[in-house]
Amino acid sequence: MTVSIFNRPDIQDFLKELSGLNATGGNARMKEITHRLMSDLFKAIDDLNITPDEYWTGIAWLNDIGAAGQAGLISPGLGLDHYIDERLDAIDAELGIDNPTPRTIEGPLYVAGAPESTGFARLDDGNDKNGHTLIMHGVVHDADGKPLPGAKVEVWHCDTRGFYSHFDPTGQQAPFNMRRTIFADDQGRYKFQSILPSGYGVPPGSPTEKLLSALGRHGQRPAHIHFFVSADGHRKLTTQINIEGDPLINDDFAYATREGLVPAVIERDDEAGINANGLNGPFAEIEWDIYLTRLLDGVDNQINTQRKRAAA
Fold first, then answer.
1. SS3 call for 275
2. Contact 142, 184 (CB under 8 A)
3. What is the pTM of this model?
């Protein structure tokens, strides 16, 4: 049996009522969004003949997602973060703005307040014995392509087990391990020493994994390093690079891989390179320049000021 009640006048009136469109108080934008989303949900219940059991299963899953604090994890998993990036790209294209360094998703594991330095930082504390030393460096450029002294480069990544400091269930990592804020030197250069991170997956048995499994999908990510890059007069860049050679680069459950964000990884075992970086053995090197874009009429039209982020 197919029953459709969405277009009944009383249902349409009901949608206006529950969305607050008939009320004088409240927030007009919130009413508009709620009315559209609830209308789409009501219509989907009709069109797909969603049963009460299916509906309440969904409600239970939402409760589980909230209890697990995984809304920020399922959001990229369902492609919402990538879709927002695509829309921002389209908006920029309409405005004639080119982004030499592509934006991509932030992820849910940034922590504010990382230790600061100028020019160079050591990210890892040396306790991850499985880590392969990484030296990463480059130049931050302004909107005219010139080196940008003082640019703020925030960088964070996981260890070889796939765990981030402040979110490590084993408690093995010190606060701000593999998290730093580096201000570019007087030639716009940034550089850091760390280890190559590993890829990782969503928590086993989690509500995020359960949904992805129901969709016939995995919850794995390739190895990557996150960046926020900002400077006066420029828009803040949210991006991340993937580690070249990872088999999941083009199969990321979070859809963060973008052209231009997979720089070459060069294995170095030459004595000159080892000595120049104060190391005692072979290391991996990544050189990656970053290009910022100028403010739009004095405003950063892409910054997200409302997102809740962890603070140590």
1. helix
2. no
3. 0.94
Phi, then psi, of 262 in degrees rounded to 5: -130, 75
| CA 165/CA 171 separation, integer angstroms | 8
pLDDT in tens, the chain (312 residues): 689 999 999 999 999 999 999 999 999 999 999 999 999 999 999 999 999 999 999 999 999 999 999 999 999 999 999 999 999 999 999 999 999 999 999 999 999 999 999 999 999 999 999 999 999 999 999 999 999 999 999 999 999 999 999 999 999 999 999 999 999 999 999 999 999 999 999 999 999 999 999 999 999 999 999 999 999 999 999 999 999 999 999 999 999 999 999 999 999 999 999 999 999 999 999 999 999 999 998 999 877 776 656 655
Radius of gyration over alpha carbons of the chain, in Å? Answer: 23
| Contact (CB, 8 A) for 90 and 237 | no
